[in-house]
Design a protein that fits this description.
- By secondary structure, the protein is mainly alpha-helical.
- Helix content is 72%, strand content 2%.
- It contains 15 helices and 2 strands.
- A two-stranded antiparallel ribbon has the order 1-2.
- Helix 4 crosses helix 11, helix 11 packs antiparallel against helix 12 and helix 11 crosses helix 13.
- The longest helix is centred in the first third of the chain and has 17 residues.
- It is elongated.
Length: 253
């Protein structure tokens, strides 16, 4: 049983508003519109809010969307292609788009941070300062230079295996290259989106890259806008499965 039937004029007004405010309309939204126009209209308000009231440039907004769509925890090819096209229209280069993907690839370090912090908590005596204390201090200082003050999980990761964390820093340094196509501020705003999105939700990464973005000139408003912009990503729980559910329903009818 679907939602109450709406007039074609109402449906067309939603289509037109979506196209005008979001820049596109596609078959996914058409199916949802036919089933529940109120939901589509409410999503439009949510997804357009930051673009219409925030301070991020159109190019930066599209780079953020590219980041969330190429995440290893949620790869959405249609969304990636669409927002890459929009980013290009707003002046982004291929090098910048690839740099966004490389920044997002650094989310994998969270696996080690979580594991190291938990291991140190369970077996604290195994990781007391020892012969590598000077080396660990040097790695810690390098982290501070790159990303600002270390959150507790990072400090634990360095104590557990400073050499491995240095390898992680080398990898991050390649992705966030100071002479790369993204400015440090842009790189950390992209990373903030990757860590804050609903398929990642890494408090450690959010704090680390939020701090770094602010240190490189981002305003509190821009940081907030990144988090507001990607809130609408939860709609993929509807956009992706609903066509499958509707097809399966018709197949079994």
């Amino acid at each position: 049983m679907g939602a109450p039937i709406s007039s074609e004029a109402t449906l067309q007004a939603i289509r037109d508003g979506f196209q005008q405010r979001r820049g596109y309309w596609n078959a996914d939204w058409e199916q949802l519109l036919q089933f529940n126009p109120a939901y589509v209209a409410a999503y439009l308000e949510l997804s357009a809010y930051t673009a219409e009231r925030g301070g991020l440039s159109p190019r930066m907004r599209e780079l953020i969307y590219v980041a969330t769509n190429c995440s290893p925890t949620h790869f959405f090819e249609r969304g990636l292609r669409q927002h890459a096209r929009f980013a290009r229209e707003y002046g982004a280069t291929l090098e910048q788009l690839i740099a966004v993907a490389m920044v997002v690839s650094t989310v994998g370090v969270q696996t080690y941070l979580l594991g190291a912090a938990a291991l140190e908590e369970l077996v604290p005596e195994a990781f007391a300062p020892g012969a590598h204390e000077d080396y660990a201090r040097a790695v810690h200082n390098r982290h501070v230079q790159m990303l600002g003050a270390a959150v507790p999980e990072v400090a634990a990761a360095i104590r557990v295996d400073p050499a491995f964390y240095e390898v992680c820093l080398n990898f991050a340094g390649a992705a966030f290259a100071s002479d790369g196509p993204l400015s440090p501020k842009e790189g950390h705003l992209v990373a903030l989106a990757a860590y804050a999105q609903c398929t990642q939700l890494s408090g450690t990464g959010v704090k680390q890259h939020m701090r770094a973005a602010l240190a490189h000139g981002a305003t509190p408003g821009e940081v907030s806008d990144v988090c507001k912009l990607i809130t609408s990503m939860g709609v993929h729980a509807v956009v992706l499965p609903v066509p499958v559910l509707m097809n399966e329903w018709r197949t079994q009818s």
